[in-house]
Specification:
Blueprint: E1 35-41, E2 48-49, H1 53-62, E3 64-68, H2 73-82, E4 88-91, H3 94-102, H4 114-118, H5 120-125, H6 127-134, E5 145-146, E6 164-166, H7 167-172, H8 184-196, H9 218-224, E7 230-232, E8 235-238, E9 243-246, H10 253-266, H11 279-287, E10 293-294, H12 297-300, H13 306-310, E11 315-317, E12 325-328, E13 338-341, H14 348-358, H15 361-369, E14 376-378, E15 384-386, H16 388-395, H17 440-443, H18 446-450, H19 452-458, H20 460-466, H21 471-478, E16 480-483, H22 498-516, H23 521-536, H24 541-558
Parallel strand pairs: 1-3, 1-4, 12-16
Antiparallel strand pairs: 2-3, 4-13, 5-13, 6-10, 6-11, 7-8, 8-9, 14-15
C-alpha cells in the first residue's frame, strides 16, 4: 500500500501540459541575524545551499538560509551513525523515521511548548495528521507531521499509474481493441513501425528506469496498480479483492507483469538500457520521441510540446478493458512524507516556524506558484489569482525575476521534494483547491486558452473516442479501485529481521531485471525460480511475510 510510496507523482498535480510552479515562503523574521539550517530531505535530489528567489523570500521572512544534505541511503546511514541528520528532516518512509527516532535524533514537538508556541497553525488545523504521528511513538508523543494532507475534500487523488501512448499513432491504426495487458504488445509493435517511418533514430515501445526500485521494480508494481494492486512489503495488496499475495507467486500479478515486460524486451519494444537509466534519462527519451508509451503522465509530458500538438501529435492515457486502476482516497491524515525537527537543532523554534509556514495557505500557494504579490496574490474575496507577471512565468519559466530578486524564475525553485498538502486540498477561505487549473480566474485567462485550452482542443479526437473530458473521468468510467484513507500505522519490523528484509529487496530487484532481460521462456522461468529460491531459502522469509500479512489485517480493521 502507499505507505512507503514515492513522492514524485506530486510534480504533475499543478498543471496539465505546462511547467508547474514550485517554491515556498515563511513567517516573519525574528531578528537581524541570518541563521543557517541544514535540511535532510529523502525526496530531494538537491544538495548545497539553496539560492534564487525562494532563498530570498526565505531570508526576508525568517532571516534564514537552507543548506541541503545529500539524501542517499548510504548518506542516511552515515548521518545516523554520526548522530545528526540535519536541522529540518523530511522522511519519505516510516522505517527511516523510526530509525532516526530510536537513535534519539528527533525532537519531541510537545517538549518546551515547541508545537504550541511555534506551530500554532499545524496544531489548529491538522489534528488528524498529528495524531497519526503520535501513534508512531510508544509513549504517544509527537515528533513530526505527515505530508500530502488533503482536507475537506471527498474523492480520490490522481491516478498516478496509467499507460500514456502516442494517440496519433494509435488512431492511425484504427484504435485497435485492447482487452487486457498483454494486448498492448501487438499495438506497440504496430505503433513503433509507424513512428519509425518518420525517424532516423531507434524507436521503442517503452523506455523505463530503475531510480525508484526498492522492495521490487517500480515499473512492474506500477503496472500491477492498473489492476487495483499496491505494494506492501514483499507482496501485492488489492483492497477491492481483500487479497494479499507474495510478489514471488508464479501465478501472481507481479510475475505476470514481469512476463509482460520480458515479452516486450524480446520483441525489441523495451529500451534495453532501462535498468541503467535514471528517471531523468527516461523522461528525456519521451521528450525526444524515442518511446511511444510510458507509465506516468509526468514522464511522458515532455512529448506534448506546442509544436507537436499543432501537428496532432500527443500522448494521452489508454486503458485495457479489464483494468481497475488504483487511487488513494483523499486523506486528512496525510501519507508518504513526515516532516520533523532534529533533536540536535540549535534553533528548533525557527525550524518549527518554517514547517508551520509551509502548511499555511500562503505557504502552500507560494510553494506551488512563487512569491506572494509577485507571481500570485489574493483578490478582495480572499481567493488567490495569478498576476500578470505570474502568467509571464507560466509562459516562459526562464523569465527574469523583478527587482528585489536575482536570477530567472526557473533558477530559484524550492528544493524540497515533498508536498505538505495535496494541491487538491480545499483552500480554507474560498473553497477553491490549491490547483490553479481549477480557479475560475485562470480558466477565463488568455494563458489558459492558449495553453491548457489549446491542449484540450488538440486532444478532441481522444475525447470524442473515449467520451471523457479528463483522465480521471476516462479511468473511472472503465472501473477503478480505491485505497481507503486511514490513520493506520504499521508496527515496526522486528530488529532481528532487518538484515533479511534488506537482502530480500536486493534479491527480488536483481532477479526481476534478469527475468525481464531473459532471451527465452526457459531463461525467464529460471530467473523467476532463482528469485523464489533466494527468498524462500532464507529461514526468516516466512516470518517476514507473516508480519506483513498481519499488518494488512490491521490496516483493514482500521478502515472498517
Amino acid at each position: 500500500m502507499k505507505i512507503n510510496k514515492r513522492i514524485a507523482a506530486a510534480v504533475a498535480a499543478a498543471a496539465v501540459t505546462i511547467t508547474a510552479f514550485t517554491g515556498c515562503a515563511f513567517s516573519d523574521k525574528t531578528d537581524d541575524k541570518t541563521v543557517s539550517l541544514t535540511v535532510y530531505d529523502q525526496s530531494s535530489v538537491f544538495s548545497g545551499e539553496m539560492t534564487g528567489w525562494f532563498a530570498e523570500v526565505l531570508k526576508d521572512r525568517l532571516n534564514v538560509k537552507l543548506n541541503f544534505r545529500t539524501s542517499s541511503d548510504q548518506a542516511f546511514n552515515a548521518y545516523v551513525e554520526a548522530g545528526s541528520l540535519g536541522d529540518v528532516i523530511v522522511f519519505n518512509n516510516e522505517s527511516s523515521y523510526r530509525t532516526a527516532k530510536d537513535a534519539g535524533l528527533l525532537m519531541d514537538w510537545e517538549q518546551s511548548g515547541l508545537l504550541e508556541n511555534h506551530g500554532q497553525y499545524l496544531e489548529a488545523n491538522y489534528k488528524e495528521a498529528l495524531d497519526k504521528n503520535r501513534k508512531l511513538d510508544p509513549d504517544g508523543r509527537i515528533y513530526g507531521i505527515y505530508g500530502n494532507i488533503c482536507k475537506d475534500v471527498e474523492g480520490h487523488e490522481d491516478f498516478y499509474n496509467c499507460f500514456y501512448i502516442r494517440w496519433d499513432l494509435y488512431s492511425k491504426l484504427g484504435c485497435p481493441e485492447i482487452n487486457t495487458l498483454e494486448d498492448f504488445e501487438a499495438v506497440l509493435e504496430d505503433m513503433v513501425k509507424l513512428a519509425s517511418e518518420d525517424s532516423d533514430s531507434k524507436i521503442y515501445g517503452i523506455s523505463s528506469f530503475s531510480t525508484w526500485d526498492d522492495t521490487m521494480l517500480d515499473m512492474v508494481r506500477s503496472t500491477a496498480a492498473l489492476y487495483g494492486y499496491t505494494d506492501f512489503g514483499f507482496g501485492m495488496y488489492n483492497p477491492s479483492l481483500g487479497s494479499y499475495e507474495p510478489c514471488i507467486d508464479e501465478d501472481g500479478i507481479y510475475v505476470r507483469c514481469l512476463r509482460f515486460y520480458n515479452s516486450l524486451y524480446r520483441a525489441g519494444l523495451l529500451d534495453p538500457s532501462s535498468e541503467s537509466q535514471t528517471y531523468t534519462m527516461a523522461q528525456k527519451d519521451y521528450g525526444s520521441g524515442k518511446a511511444v508509451m510510458g507509465m506516468y503522465k509526468y514522464i511522458t509530458d515532455p512529448y506534448n510540446t506546442t509544436a507537436r500538438l499543432s501537428k496532432g501529435k500527443y500522448m494521452v492515457p489508454v486503458v485495457a478493458e479489464d483494468f481497475s486502476n488504483i487511487a488513494d482516497e483523499y486523506s486528512p491524515y496525510g501519507h508518504n512524507a513526515i516532516w520533523s525537527v532534529s533533536s540536535k537543532c540549535q534553533n528548533p523554534e525557527l525550524a518549527m516556524q518554517l514547517i508551520n509556514w509551509l502548511y499555511t495557505p500562503e505557504g502552500v500557494l507560494t510553494n506551488l506558484y512563487g512569491p506572494k504579490d509577485v507571481t500570485w496574490t489574493y483578490d478582495g474575496s480572499g481567493a488567490p489569482y495569478i498576476t500578470e507577471f505570474g502568467y509571464a512565468c507560466l509562459d516562459d519559466d526562464s523569465t527574469e525575476m523583478p527587482e528585489g530578486y536575482t536570477g530567472a524564475y526557473n533558477t530559484g525553485y524550492s528544493m524540497f521534494g515533498s508536498m505538505c498538502l495535496s494541491p487538491d486540498s480545499a483552500f480554507d477561505k474560498t473553497g477553491n483547491s490549491y490547483n490553479l487549473i481549477t480557479w475560475e480566474s485562470v480558466k477565463n485567462s488568455t494563458w489558459y486558452s492558449e495553453n491548457t485550452g489549446r491542449f484540450e482542443e488538440a486532444i478532441s479526437d481522444w475525447k470524442k473516442h473515449t467520451g471523457a473530458q479528463s483522465t480521471d473521468e476516462y479511468i473511472e468510467k472503465n472501473g477503478f479501485t480505491i485505497l481507503p484513507a486511514s490513520d493506520f500505522i504499521s508496527d515496526e519490523l522486528p530488529s532481528d529481521l532487518f538484515l533479511t528484509n534488506s537482502e530480500l529487496s536486493g534479491d527480488i530487484c536483481t532477479n526481476s531485471w534478469l527475468a525481464i532481460y531473459a532471451a527465452t521462456d526457459e531463461e525467464f522461468d529460471d530467473a523467476v525460480k532463482k528469485m523464489q529460491e533466494a527468498c524462500t531459502s532464507r529461514s526468516s522469509y516466512n516470518q517476514i511475510m507473516d508480519f506483513y500479512e498481519s499488518m494488512i489485517d490491521k490496516y483493514e480493521e482500521s478502515v472498517q
